[in-house]
């Protein structure tokens, strides 16, 4: 992985540009999102927030995938490069790199792993499907003349669900090299996906949704979108019982295979993109604000007011909320019930000291739990400097002098003649500047 700047590496939100790709493995819960700056965020199995955030290459538009089981993720960028990473540590296990005009001509738009996670199929803007064996680091097949925004293996890894240049869903039999036609969809489609049981194909066009039964390939149901804000994408629930159709304003849920409307909810994305996933928490829609939006979810954190950090520990203040970070992992934000304008955290990430804007004085919290510990008093309201280390909090007073608090032993000490100070990282020593 390339070394990121501190700003990119420690930014409180994973993406600072429109989200352009999203994929999830329903089995493990592992997911990946990408943005138009080329940043990817990987959420590992068992985690709720991205544990790996980095920028492997150029901008990414739709070409992201998670291998079944969640051990690998793949991305394809605007330079035509294809890369596969381990979700655990971000190590690259496969790459097919391109650059310059030849790379841009094969900018990637979709990709998918087979069930074993050993073969990766990609779709690029030149209409070519490229199939890679990631264990042998080689391309094993090429298929020309395809379009759309999706590609998917069947459960055996023997067939690919694709869309031709006329917008019609097809199946490619990779063993016999034959094209299997499905019933023609009026108006064509942009994306298509198997249901989890692989008994149906759900296809989406600008005007609606079509359900195709397998293996005979007949259309058995359809839904025409009327008075909608335009369909952006579709996503199937992990259990295969429901389908989510995302429009500019809402997520419309349908039953499967009946394709009957069940409910509709506002997704909350002010400017949604086509990046959509459905995990155990429900449907998430990518936005141009760099965030995933979920129906019924609470509003996102307020803009950042101030930040601070020490070593691997950092804190960002969002209005009344404080969000602690350890390396690239954000802990659950907690409410401080006041608006901090300055904040400090000790080197071990145990104590958080915040200076409110209401003149009430510095407040001390247990950083990893958000538990309030004590109020340093109104005398500290205008402190020009404060530091925290170990179990000690120290600050300069507005009228001169130094006051420090030994939180563990419940002691307060003060030196009125101190003109400046520095607290050691562990809180063991204080260096003071004398008047002369």
Distance N to C terminus: 51 Å
Morphology: elongated
Radius of gyration: 27 Å
CATH superfamily of the largest domain: YVTN repeat-like/Quinoprotein amine dehydrogenase
Give the overall pLDDT as a whole number. Answer: 91
| CATH architecture assignment name of the largest domain | 7 Propeller
CATH class of the largest domain: Mainly Beta
Strand content: over 45%
SS-based structural class? mainly beta
Which runs of at least 5 residues are low in confidence (pLDDT < 50)?
1-11
CATH topology of the largest domain, by name, is Methylamine Dehydrogenase, Chain H
Q: What can be said about the biggest beta sheet? A: 5 strands, antiparallel
Number of domains: 2
The tally of strands reads: 42
> Helical amount among residues, as a percent range?
under 10%
- Total helix count? 2
Would you write up a description of this structure?
With 436 residues, the chain is an all-beta fold. It has two domains: 6-293, Methylamine Dehydrogenase, Chain H, CATH 2.130.10.10; 306-433, Methylamine Dehydrogenase, Chain H (7 Propeller). The chain is built from two helices and 42 strands. The strands form eleven sheets. Strands 28, 29, 30, 31 and 32 form a five-stranded antiparallel sheet that branches. The two termini are 51 Å apart. Mean pLDDT is 91; it is low at 1-11.
């Amino acid at each position: 992985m390339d070394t990121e700047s501190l700003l990119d590496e420690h930014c409180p939100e994973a993406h600072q540009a429109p989200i352009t790709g999203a994929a999830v493995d329903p089995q493990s819960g592992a997911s990946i999102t990408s943005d138009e700056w080329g940043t990817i965020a990987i959420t590992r199995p068992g985690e709720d927030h991205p544990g790996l955030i980095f920028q492997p290459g150029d901008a990414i538009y739709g070409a992201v995938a998670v291998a079944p089981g969640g051990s690998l993720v793949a991305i394809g960028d605007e330079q035509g490069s294809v890369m596969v990473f381990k979700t655990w540590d971000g190590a690259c296990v496969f790459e097919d790199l391109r650059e310059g005009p030849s790379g841009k001509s094969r900018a990637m738009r979709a990709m998918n792993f087979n069930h074993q996670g050993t073969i990766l199929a990609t779709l690029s803007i030149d209409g070519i499907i490229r199939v890679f064996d990631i264990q042998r680091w080689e391309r094993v097949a090429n298929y020309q003349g395809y379009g759309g925004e999706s590609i998917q293996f069947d459960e055996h890894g023997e067939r690919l669900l694709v869309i031709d240049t006329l917008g019609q869903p097809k199946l490619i039999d990779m063993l016999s090299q034959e094209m299997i036609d499905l019933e023609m969809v009026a108006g064509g489609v942009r994306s298509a996906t198997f249901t989890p049981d692989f008994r149906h194909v759900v296809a989406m066009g600008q005007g609606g949704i079509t359900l195709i039964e397998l293996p005979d390939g007949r259309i058995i149901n359809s839904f025409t979108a009327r008075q909608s804000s335009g369909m952006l994408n579709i996503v199937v629930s992990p259990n295969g019982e429901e389908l989510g159709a995302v429009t500019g304003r809402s997520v419309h849920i349908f039953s499967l295979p009946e394709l009957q409307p069940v409910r509709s909810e506002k997704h909350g994305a002010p400017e949604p993109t086509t990046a959509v996933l459905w995990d155990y928490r429900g449907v998430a829609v990518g936005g141009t604000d760099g965030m995933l939006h979920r129906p019924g979810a609470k509003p996102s954190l307020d803009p950042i007011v101030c930040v601070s950090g020490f070593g691997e520990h950092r804190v960002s203040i969002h209005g009344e909320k404080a969000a602690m970070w350890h390396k690239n992992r954000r802990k659950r934000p907690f409410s401080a019930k006041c608006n901090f304008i300055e904040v400090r955290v000790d080197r071990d990430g145990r104590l958080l000291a915040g200076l409110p804007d209401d003149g009430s004085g510095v407040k001390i919290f247990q950083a990893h739990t958000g538990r309030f510990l004590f109020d340093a008093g109104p005398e500290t309201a205008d402190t020009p400097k404060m530091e925290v280390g170990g179990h000690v909090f120290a600050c300069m007073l507005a009228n001169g002098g130094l006051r420090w608090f030994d939180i563990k032993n419940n002691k307060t000490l003060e030196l009125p003649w101190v003109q400046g100070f520095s607290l050691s990282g562990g809180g063991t020593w204080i260096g003071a500047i004398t008047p002369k």
